[in-house]
């Protein structure tokens, strides 16, 4: 009980932090969360409503390709700030495009015909995709950077700062996700309008907070010089940021991986599992899962159930992550977290297959609540596998590289997932008319598709378990081998009792042998 109370106390203390800089950024995070949960994550339902069933599967292809391009753009935009223009300018530019994209959706839905609105949609999606990618590439890192500079955490470790930084992001993100389910009986036009206004107001607040931000330009970065607004005096006495938070890019991550061959091979194997299994299920979760709702009984009249299921999946992701973090560190290796996440990938496909078979084979008891388990597993697998991959990378690098690896390791994983989503979109287009019917979801073979995904993810899961077990045993042997070698060397170099008289001619040789053996032993201990 005292341990639980200590955890709760620390949890509340993490959320008790306010400053002028972080508040301005958190306002933007709040608006992004609202727009994401109310619109962006469920745009497939808007497309199917606007285009109707003659283009239902084209809508799936469009959303998968859009999600894939978004994930790929994240790592591109993440590399730009550290190389050319800085985090603040990336955030300002991408959020301006995000607001314009939402505005176009609002105007097209409110004042344009369906044909014109469908054409405007593509332009709006390009701008929204750029804004979404800018958020994941720069906004989180910018918020973390402001907090680190304000608190002067140069001497604190990555783990000591992680909980506080996570809380700074999670609080506005949670509040932004809570609001959409309470917007009862709102039309798409109203949702677009509210999101556009919310993003505009928070964006203005973000720009007004510029005098309080700690920024630096890339021309002075190599010399470690901060570029702060000269008119703000308190910024001149601001603490310097630890170098680990502001240096590095994806090439540095690659160089770190190349230094350890086993680390590189295992990371590539896990990323392959993300490509072949995780990304496929994520693509289905953002498209087909929502399309299944149209053919199930919705007990809530005039309410869009997609919002509730989307928020539910998001909450389950962060809930499982929070519960996992309560486990003592020695009991939760990162490999186990990824393993549990991949197991949930298989279970999600299996449950979706059973639900779809039940939906097709019965005319009664077709409640929409049958979809709850698969949306729950969709969130759990992300909270375990995605965050577990970040932990896996961070745990295997030095303290000075942990922050950089956390950012760019996450971006690289998202890149892999994005490639998988694009491949899924192309496969849906290739099998359109055979497995996927535009006219009626009931005549599509979605249950067979889910069964095929279950087989695929099971094979990938088995492959992942073999790789993880192999490298786990190798690490165990590596941990044990130095001790046995050291003992053996000690036994070999122990002085032997020689009954024969001492030979003066061999004194120099014996002394040299002893020194070489001692140097070897010291090298073994230092190497440990």
Describe the structure.
The protein is 74% helix and 0% strand. It has 528 residues and is mainly α. The chain is globular.
Key phrases:
74% helix; 18 helices; 528 residues; single chain; mainly alpha; globular
Quick gist of this model?
The protein is about 75% helix and about 0% strand.
Fold blueprint:
Layout: H1 2-14, H2 20-38, H3 43-51, H4 56-85, H5 87-111, H6 114-151, H7 158-178, H8 188-208, H9 233-236, H10 250-259, H11 261-285, H12 288-291, H13 305-325, H14 334-361, H15 372-394, H16 402-430, H17 446-493, H18 507-527
Helix pairs in contact: 2-6, 2-7, 2-8, 3-4, 4-5, 4-6, 4-16, 5-6, 5-8, 6-7, 11-14, 11-15, 11-16, 11-17, 13-15, 14-15, 14-17, 15-16, 17-18
Q: How many helices in DSSP terms?
A: 18
How large a portion of the residues is in β-strands, by DSSP E?
Answer: under 5%
- pLDDT < 50 stretches: 217-247, 482-528
Look at the helices and sheets and give the structural class: mainly alpha
Major sheet attributes: none
User: Span from first to last CA?
Assistant: 38 Å
What general form does the structure show? globular
User: Considering DSSP H and I runs of 4 or more, what fraction of the residues is helical?
Assistant: over 70%
Order of helices and strands: HHHHHHHHHHHHHHHHHH
Mean pLDDT: 79
Whole-angstrom Rg: 27 Å
The number of distinct β-strands equals: 0
């Amino acid at each position: 009980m005292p341990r639980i109370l200590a955890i709760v106390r620390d949890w509340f203390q993490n959320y008790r932090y306010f400053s002028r800089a972080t508040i301005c950024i958190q306002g933007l995070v709040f608006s992004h969360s609202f727009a994401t949960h109310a619109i962006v994550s469920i745009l497939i339902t808007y497309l199917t409503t606007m285009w109707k069933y003659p283009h239902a599967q084209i809508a799936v292809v469009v959303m998968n390709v859009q999600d894939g391009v978004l994930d790929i753009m994240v790592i591109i935009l993440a590399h730009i700030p550290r190389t050319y223009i800085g985090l603040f300018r990336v955030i300002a530019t991408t959020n301006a495009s995000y607001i314009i994209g939402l505005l176009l959706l609002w105007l097209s839905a409110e004042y344009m015909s369906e044909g014109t609105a469908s054409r405007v949609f593509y332009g709006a999606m390009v701008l929204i995709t750029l804004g979404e990618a800018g958020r994941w590439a720069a906004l989180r890192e910018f918020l973390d950077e402001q907090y680190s500079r304000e608190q002067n955490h140069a001497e604190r470790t990555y783990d000591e700062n992680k909980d506080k930084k996570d809380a700074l992001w999670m609080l506005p993100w949670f509040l932004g996700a809570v609001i959409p389910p309470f917007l009862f009986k709102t039309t798409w036009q109203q949702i677009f309008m509210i999101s556009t206004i919310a993003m505009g107001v928070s964006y203005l607040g973000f720009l007004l907070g510029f005098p309080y931000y700690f920024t630096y330009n890339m021309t002075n970065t190599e010399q470690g010089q901060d570029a702060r607004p000269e008119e703000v005096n308190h910024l001149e006495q601001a603490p310097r940021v630890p170098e680990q938070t502001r240096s590095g890019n994806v090439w540095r991550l690659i160089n770190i991986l190349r230094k350890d061959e086993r680390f590189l091979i295992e990371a590539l194997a896990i990323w392959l599992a993300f490509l072949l299994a995780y990304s496929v299920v994520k693509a289905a979760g953002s498209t087909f899962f929502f399309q299944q709702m149209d053919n199930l009984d919705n007990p809530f009249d005039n309410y869009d159930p997609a919002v509730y299921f989307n928020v539910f999946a998001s909450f389950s992701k962060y809930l499982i992550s929070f519960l996992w973090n309560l486990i003592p560190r020695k009991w939760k290796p990162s490999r186990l977290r990824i393993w549990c996440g991949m197991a949930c990938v298989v279970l999600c496909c299996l449950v979706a297959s059973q639900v779809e078979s039940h939906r097709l084979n019965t005319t009664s008891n077709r409640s929409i609540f049958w979809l709850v388990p698969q949306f729950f597993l969709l969130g759990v697998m992300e909270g375990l596998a995605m965050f577990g991959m970040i932990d896996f990378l961070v745990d295997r690098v030095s303290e000075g590289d942990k922050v950089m690896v956390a950012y760019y390791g996450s971006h690289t994983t998202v890149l892999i997932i994005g490639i998988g989503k694009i491949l899924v979109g192309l496969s849906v287009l290739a099998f359109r008319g055979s497995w996927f019917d535009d006219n009626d979801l009931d005549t599509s073979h979605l249950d067979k598709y889910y069964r095929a995904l279950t087989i695929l993810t099971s094979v990938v899961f088995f492959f992942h378990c073999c790789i993880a077990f192999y490298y786990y045993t190798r690490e165990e042997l590596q941990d044990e081998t130095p001790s046995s070698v050291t003992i053996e060397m000690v036994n070999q170099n122990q002085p032997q009792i020689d009954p024969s008289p001492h030979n003066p001619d061999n004194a120099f040789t014996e002394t040299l042998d002893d020194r070489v053996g001692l140097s070897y032993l010291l090298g073994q201990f230092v190497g440990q």
